[in-house]
Amino acid sequence: MTIDAASSPDAQDLARHYRSSLIRAMDQNTVLERLACGLSICIGIARARSNADHEAWGQRLASDRSSPTYSYAEVAEGIGAGYENRFMFSIDPELNSISGN
Q1: How many CB atoms are closer than 10 A to CB 99?
Q2: How many structural domains compose the chain?
Q3: Which of 4, 23, 58, 90 lies at a 20 to 30 A Cα distance from 67?
Q4: Using CA atoms, how far apart are residues 99 and 101, in angstroms rounded to an integer?
Q5: What tens digit of pLDDT does each residue of 3-27 get?
Q6: Is the pTM value of this prediction over 0.90?
């Protein structure tokens, strides 16, 4: 996705916007490791010190009206002394459902 987005100024703008929103939602106990956005979805990886820290930034992102997410899917896993969160969300109101097996 990162390679495809490199040729799209719109996708690059969306990635900058959502990266800023994610960083605002995170505190000193959470780090955004990766984020890639296309024109319809964003995917990323974040690390948090605890599950509570992970849940807190997720709630702050969900309440950020400047950066709507229309569907959100994640996998959080305890890794060592912290949590790794792999996530994907829709930034397109027409794609308001993410499902998988």
Answers
A1: 6
A2: 1
A3: 4
A4: 7
A5: 767 778 899 999 999 999 999 999 9
A6: no
